[in-house]
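Forwarding the complex inputs:
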Amino acid sequence: MASAASEAPAAETPPPAKGRLVLRHRLATRLWHWLNALTLFVMLMSGLMIFNAHPRLYWGQYGANFDRPWLQIGATPTTGIVQIGDRRFDTTGVLGRWKDRDGQERTRAFPWWATIPSYYDLAGARRWHLAFAWLLVVPGLLYWLWSFASGHARRDLAPRRAELAPRHIWQDVKDHARLRFPRGEAALRYNILQKLAYCSVLFGLLPLIVLTGLTMSPAMDAAWPWLLTLFGGRASARSIHFLCAMGLVTFIVVHLAMVLLAGPYNEIRSMITGRYRIRPEAGA
Amino acid sequence: MSLSLSRRRLIGSIAAGTGGLLLAGCDRLNRNDDFRETLRGAERLTMRAQRLISDRGALAREYTAADMSPIFRANGNRMPASADYQRHLASGFREWRLQVDGLVARPLSLSLDAIRRLPTRTQITRHDCVEGWSAIGQWTGVPLKLLLDAAGMRQSARYIVFHCADTFGPVPYYESIDLIDAFHPQTILAWGMNGRMLPVANGAPLRLRVERMLGYKHAKYVMRVEAVASLAGIGQGKGGYWEDSHDYEWYGGI
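Prediction (whole assembly, two chains):
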């Protein structure tokens, strides 16, 4: 560091101590990100309330109480249980049987702190869910169009052939596991794990969760009968919808963890103002 | 160490506190009339969007006998309690009559036998409950369009209201649909189910099937079909028992 100060300052030499600020996220990405931060939480939590109205999932065209679910959240006289196939798990206190805010024991699937509203209200949850769905879908479609038209998808998101080599992916997994995050110019590009994660959400989970959501609508099934064919029935679509939601929860958990580990101030600022401070290359 | 622990605990309690506040805020919004009215705007948007992309005659999928639910779940009211209904049930609905009235030129009063002699439609369709479960069953009945045409709808009619024999507490069940669904080819008043007479639990003697809608729109125990210009004067004005009592959407297509 001392030697850097003794060198003749050149116009193109960045100040090495703090690193320079660069534009990392464009406005469209930033707006869409924060809208989604709100929308996805509302969709998830109101969705869990809707699930509570019939906490069983099936495969096929139909499924009701006399049919065999592949997943069920319920209660025995004393415990809360999750049943997947023939396997039962005791989830007392969290799923199936839990205490509400006032200490009252309840036997609903998802607990009060995970649902909107926090008390049982199917009609209310549907109002939230089906209204915020528009906020998810319309800006989502606009963002999709923008990311293709502007080259964002091709330039920043699409994995390059070399990046998809197993060795490269494995190296990136090891770097993440050791919490070694890229410095310098490399920090401006998404690494391959980020690309795969963002692409699977943008072009996988999000379209899938919207289409399976529409498949649960009887009017949509009449309008677009191919939805039922595509997903193998309304009960299957409901199951896939739920699994996609769990996939998005996993993405959000990992995403938040990486933001915290990679430096929350810099990361969050870059998503608000767009400016990101590049840390100097290791050894520079 | 103790400093970092207490800081961690502080951050934890801030997070939990913020979460609690947000949840309480959501509950308050859920009870706020202005906010609920905003959310209701989405119901109209959804209805218009679905109608825009959908032919008004687009058919719900019809299944084969092999696709039917082994046991078709019945829910809601399964046995109307009124003395009138009990009397009709005991006599095999011999004295029972369906009234078709309101904004029609020729009000009708039809016996169950007369209804069964009318042209029928049989369809194997999926019943989708608002709660999330589905069941597939076979329904036989008279297309609602035939009754409405026979009665002669007045120009001012906009909705068809179904008055039912079952009650929730003192409140009679009712439902309503608009004319697009009322004249849809799969909209029938069913008197048969799965090849037999309609069981009491499923709405005997007559229930509505309106196949592009959720289950609560399919009124059971239908006693009277009324053509109206507006839903304002009926029940609490929102077009159905669940709409009035629990704020379910009137548009039950999603």
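Confidence is low (pLDDT under 50) at residues 1-15 of chain A.
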